[in-house]
Amino acid sequence: MPILDDRSFEFFSHSAEQTRRLGIHLGGYLRREDVICLEGNLGSGKTTLVQGIGQGWGTLDPVTSPTYILVNEYQRPDQEQLFHLDAYRLKNAQEADALDLDRMLTQGALVIEWAERIESALPAQHLWIQIRFASSENRIMLFTPRGARYETMIANLRRKVYGVF
User: What is the pTM of this model?
Assistant: First the structure.
């Protein structure tokens, strides 16, 4: 894991519920054209975090893993959209492009599990979240903003969670 700089944010989650609550806070900051990239092993908590993101963003539908259908789409009452892509079954970035990522980005926010598999297809500016196991219940999450929009998002999240910075 890299040494943290003042733009990154590290969070130690003690439970799935705490991971979900952090996602709720993060989801409240999402807007159209935002890209959230998740990296982590199977069972690390990526989908749990996305469940919180969806709830905080405002979907009324339960968020589920799109592993077999690749993309789930969620709507808020105001018709804004959230796309949840699972890149686990994609072989490369070209397969991701075939899913019409540009359309997803212009029509809503995009959250990607297994983003490292399609990194070359992603916009240069995004929020990268690496999730690692610390123990059976605990996770270490490293939030790395790539671009000013995401630096602001992380600063707001850090303030919300810790009340400082």
Answer: 0.91
- Sheet with 139-146, strands from edge to edge, namely 9-13, 139-146, 126-133, 35-40, 108-113, 81-86, 71-75
Provide the residue ranges of all domains of the chain, joining segments of one domain with +: 9-159
Distance between CA 114 and CA 45 in Å, rounded? 12
Which residue, among 50, 51, 24, 29, has the nearest Cα to 114 in the 3D structure?
A: 50
**For domain 9-159, which CATH number applies: 1.10.760.10, 2.20.28.10, 3.40.50.300, 2.40.50.140?**
3.40.50.300
Number of Cβ within a 10 Å radius of residue 51: 23
- As a dihedral over the C-alpha atoms of residue 15, residue 17, residue 22, residue 27, rounded to 10 degrees, the angle is 150
* Backbone dihedral region for residue 70 (phi beyond 0: left; psi -120 to 50: alpha; all else: beta): left
Any idea how long the chain is?
165
* 107 phi and psi angles, rounded to 5 deg: -100, -10
pLDDT tens digits, one per residue of 98-143: 888 888 989 999 999 999 999 988 999 999 999 999 888 899 999 9
Cα 31–Cα 37–Cα 39 angle in degrees, nearest 5: 155
Are the beta carbons of 44 and 132 closer than 8 angstroms?
Answer: yes
